Amino acid sequence: MKNINFRITVIFLLISLVLVGCTPPAAPELESETHEPASASDLLEEEFLSQPTRFTIQADDDLQPSLIGLYDALYPGEIPGFVASGGDLIATRLEPAFDGRPYVPSWFLPGSALIPQDENPDVRDFIDFALSPDGQQILIELGELPSVVTLKDQAGNALKIQQPVRRVISAYGPSTAIVYSINAGDRLVAASYLGARDPQGAAAMERIDPRFTTLVGDDYFSQSEFNLEQAATLEPDLVIGGARSGWADSVSQLGIQVFLMEAETPDQLKEAMLLVGQLFGPHAHAQAQAWVAYFDWVIENTTIDTAHLTQPERVRVLFTGTEPLRVASGAMYQTDIIQAAGGISVSAELSGYWNDINLEQVAIWDPDVIIVPPYGGASVSAITDSLEWQILPAVQAEKVYRMPKLVVPWDTPAPDSVLGIIWMAGRLNPGLTSLDCGEEAAYFYNTFYNYTISGDEIAAICTIE
Amino acid sequence: MPPSARSSKKTTHTNKRLTVGLILILPVALLIISLTLGRYDINAFNVLRVLLSPIFPEAAAGIPEIARQLILQIRVPRILAALLIGASFGATGTAFQAIFKNPLVDSNILGVTSGAGFGAAVAILLMRSAWQVQLSAFVFGLLAVSLSFFGSRLYKATPLLVLTLMGILVGSLFNSLTSLLKYVADPLDSLPAITFWLLGSLTSITWQNIPALFVITMAGLVFLWLIRWRLNILSLGDDEAKSLGIDPIRMKLIIIMFATLMTAVAVSVSGVIGWVGLVIPHAGRLIVGPDHKRLLPVSVGLGAAFMILIDNIARTLLPGEIPLGVLTGLIGVPLLIVLLRQKRTGW
Amino acid sequence: MTILEAQHLSFAYDLENTILHDVSLTLHPGEMLYILGPNGGGKTTLLHCLAGLLKPHTGQVILAGKSLDVYSAVERAQWIGLIPQLHTPAFAYSVSEMVMMGRAPHLGWLGSPTSADHAIVEEALEQVGLFELRDRPYTEISGGERQLVLIARGLAQKCKILLMDEPTAHLDLSNQHRVLEIINQLTRQGLSFILSSHAPNDALAYADNVILLNGGWVTEYGPPIDTLTEPMLSTVYGIKTEVIFGWEDDKPIPRAVVPRRPLAITPGSLVDHDSPLSQIFERSKQTPQLILVTGLSGVGKTTWCSQLAQLASEKGLSVVGILSPGIFSGDRKIGIGVKDLHTNEHRQLAKLREDEDAQLATPRWTFDPDALAWANAKLEDSPEGDLLIIDELGPLEFLRDEGLLAGLARIDAGHYRVACVVVRSSLLPKALQRWPQAFVVSGSVRD
């Protein structure tokens, strides 16, 4: 709803930000003056103490050259202190374990991870550097990482992407969500967001990424539009867009690399995750693999949980769109979510995209549960308050629910949809599911968005009243 | 004069009267038949029992409640709306063709539909609730016609021509504004809603839509019914109408006012449905000739029947709704071409 | 008894263009009044004022003793019917539906025709002889029949006066006659008609009275025998006309007005004693005679005049006036000279136009003001003479009040015996409206 309102709000916010930025910050200046001596002395002390060895590294022999290179780049002229055991940081080869809820260590090379052993901030800095584009650059120069990634995007274009990718424009909501979930959100210079137009979504997105308000570029970059002038000022290395973006050719003619993704089915989504993961280095790729493993594990769980249900026992679900009488077709991702959760989408016989139908057809389908999406002004009350909808048993039984979301709606083909399956499974068969929505949401946002979701947020999203 | 000539004339006269009567009964018959049609299978006898149930509650005993509600809450208002909207388009199309002396116009010529489309798009973007969309469509429909009308007052030249021109200009203006709104609309969210509205559908009709639609449409139909014969005179041109004792300017103004109200209220609940007001009067002329005394009732009956039929297809053919604007075009255009071939000379 | 009277009507659509000036007329029951005049003369406007469709700016229309303003539109329609020029309606109404529309002023605001109205319509159709066609589409019958349908509509309207705008235009001869005969018979039943027309002959045959309307002014009003005279028609239409008389009860009755073509006279015929040219000179002894030499540019009007001048002086007649021969460079006319016939002096009058801002100029020529002043002085001062030649009076003189104004004044004053004035074809109507008694001669020289 209310794009216009929202856009106006954003404009006002931006104007007020600019105004606030322009006014001379009298009070803070005073404060900083008083603190300056203290912080200066801290700094001195720290530098003095850590001068000889910042931290010790316990590393496999063959990894040491890479680590020396990284260390030298971060702290010019210094060499790392390697120890045989008890190091502050362990660098080692690992077998990736992608099962259940995978823990993703910091993969600085394929198959090699950095594991911090204490809370030393220098260790954290070093790991961050190793995973950053600058660190990637060092590893490429050392010949440890390829300088070019060759792959085929989901529109079938063969691409040779120069590494590292530092500046990305994501002109497609799902691809933005993917970039965040493989921990590459810091490489975005502008992005189109999914579900961040409403105030709650925008606020949550800003908590996840404080740069959100400066990155959001829905007016310039979307499926239908790509503002070349604006793009040029951002100097991107890479543009990620949806496969149906009409502007792709004109952008690639400017010499900007374009990756097109298409994720309308679970398989396509998994493929998109893995492909985009490859673009941003070993850690991002490992994140993507972890997500795919998690997704498969969740579906496996929900499938096992509901396997014993016979066809007539399965819950019949109607998934409506932005209007109550607009429903999801069988080709849409929502149908996959319902099936994965052990339900049956009553409108699966429809083809195409959203279909407009009449209430008589709904009466024939006679769904047990109606789900409305968390966008486009759709609301549960639009259905429950309508006299006409009251003729349906599902409405009489008040089985009309809204699909949850934190930012990205959980019914859209984006990484967050894995939670949509979990929620849907709990919603349809409360007694049967082994996965808990709140627990999984906490794991998911922590692992894939680097965001610690609050208890209040979980309560607001997952509570099944 | 041979007496037989006169008596044969009387017969043709009676025949035509009979035709008019039959065509007026047609939509009523179709309405009853259509109540038995739908995706949900209910046989005709049970439909009858359901229809009687509000008066005799025991009549519907044994019929599932959902079927009963489906007929009373969904089918009845929807088919009723189709009847009223079709009658309204038929009548206003006929009236506009007469007063504009042009068989190729309908009540959209002054921009009412374009205005209503814009009003609906604005409401879909900003507010969203069904009644707000309808009200906004209605208000902007009237606003567009007022703009055309007062705009035409700026020029002194042939008033009808300038009015037509202003109508086309205002219509284009509002169409452009609607395109602008579609351009800024969210492609996942409000854009499909605007597009669907612009294609026309009766899928969201409920009893709540019926009172305003009924009152305004019936008031307009009664008015047009009463002045129907005078449409003949208005269609000759202002000078002849004046010399026959009619004030054409005032009369046209009132007709435009009624027709605009009727069209605006119809479009506000149905969305944009073209072609009906254009094609139906032609079909009527083929059957009873151009005399508006007979043509108007026939257009009312044919319009209502046509709309019920089209809507029956829209709601029953596929699980998904087929937009009415698409069907009226798909059926109306070939029909118009056939009618043009049948045309003798003149209209 | 007067049924309709117009008193000093004037009407203008805007301030610059007055369409009617002080038009007055009276109409009696059973009278047929013809309004004749050229296109744009104000005929339709006058009919619309009389029908109450337009409100005159000054003056008023009196209908049956009361001002037309007092009548409501419906009351007015019960008295006066207006039949506009034939046009095709947008819809193919049947003949009887068309006639039925005449019942409108007799039905209430929301009324519809009843069987009584049907009876009236059938009677009206029978009166004009179209009962057989009653179910035919109006758009498919002939023009004459359509006109009769509209008359029948007037009859069904039961009005006392029918105003018809050019009812015979676009009709063939037999249909014109059929319509006018029926109108004529209806006048005998007391119905009054005002017809606008382009056909003076019809007016001679059918009209009781005729109004000649020209440029919004009534130039003549009265019975056709008095109004449709040769000079009157020449003035109004700007062409030479001739009235053909027939004999009835030993009295000459005007039958037809026909246009008269320019006379084909050669200057050489002056030597023949009986030639029309010689007769003109003969007659000039009593009254001044004016010859307008006309033709398209380049046919030899100046040559015609100079030949006549030469022959006349050879015959011993005194010739005055001026000639303006072309000055040529090869085949191209590059200037206009001026020659005083009395003194044989030459000047250059005009050259091809180069200066866009020239004060005295026509589209092609720039005139020398001194030469013009000289020529004007010559025209003013020269003696009366037997033959006055003025070559030529053109757009400067007729349309802009410049140029050889002395020549124009001299002809207006009748200060000549025989005058020979060169006037190009396009300006001939202007010249004839000014001097309707003039002879028109084709100034082409064949040799």
Question: Short summary of the structure?
Answer:
The complex is a heterotrimer of chains A (465), B (347) and C (447). Chain A has 465 residues and is of the alpha/beta class.
Topology:
The complex is a heterotrimer of chains A (465), B (347) and C (447).
Chain A: H1 3-22, H2 26-50, E1 56-59, H3 64-74, E2 81-82, E3 89-93, E4 106-109, E5 112-116, H4 121-131, H5 133-141, E6 148-152, E7 158-162, E8 168-170, H6 173-181, E9 188-191, H7 199-208, H8 212-215, H9 228-234, E10 238-242, H10 248-253, E11 257-261, H11 266-279, H12 282-306, E12 316-319, E13 326-327, H13 333-340, E14 344-345, E15 355-356, H14 359-365, E16 369-372, H15 380-384, H16 393-396, E17 400-402, H17 417-428, H18 437-449, H19 455-462
Parallel strand pairs in A: 1-2, 1-3, 8-9, 8-10, 10-11, 12-14, 12-16, 16-17
Antiparallel strand pairs in A: 3-5, 4-5, 6-7, 13-15
Helix pairs in contact in A: 4-5, 11-12, 12-17, 17-18, 18-19
Chain B: H1 3-35, H2 44-52, H3 65-99, H4 112-126, H5 130-152, H6 159-184, H7 190-199, H8 210-226, H9 228-234, H10 238-243, H11 248-270, H12 276-288, H13 292-316, H14 324-342
Chain C: E1 4-12, E2 18-27, E3 32-36, H1 43-50, E4 58-63, E5 66-67, H2 73-79, E6 80-83, H3 95-100, H4 115-127, H5 143-156, E7 161-165, H6 173-188, E8 192-197, H7 200-206, E9 209-214, E10 217-222, H8 224-227, H9 230-237, E11 241-248, E12 251-259, H10 276-283, E13 289-294, H11 301-314, E14 319-323, E15 326-329, E16 332-340, E17 346-352, E18 365-367, H12 369-381, E19 387-390, H13 395-400, H14 405-413, E20 418-422, H15 428-434, E21 439-442
Parallel strand pairs in C: 3-8, 3-9, 6-7, 7-8, 13-20, 13-21, 14-19, 19-20
Antiparallel strand pairs in C: 1-2, 1-4, 4-5, 9-10, 11-12, 14-16, 15-16, 16-17, 17-18
Keywords summarizing the entry:
heterotrimer, B: 347 residues, mainly alpha, ABC transporter involved in vitamin B12 uptake, BtuC, 14 helices, C: 447 residues, alpha/beta, Rossmann fold, 2 domains, nine-stranded mixed beta sheet, six-stranded mixed beta sheet, 31% helix, 28% strand
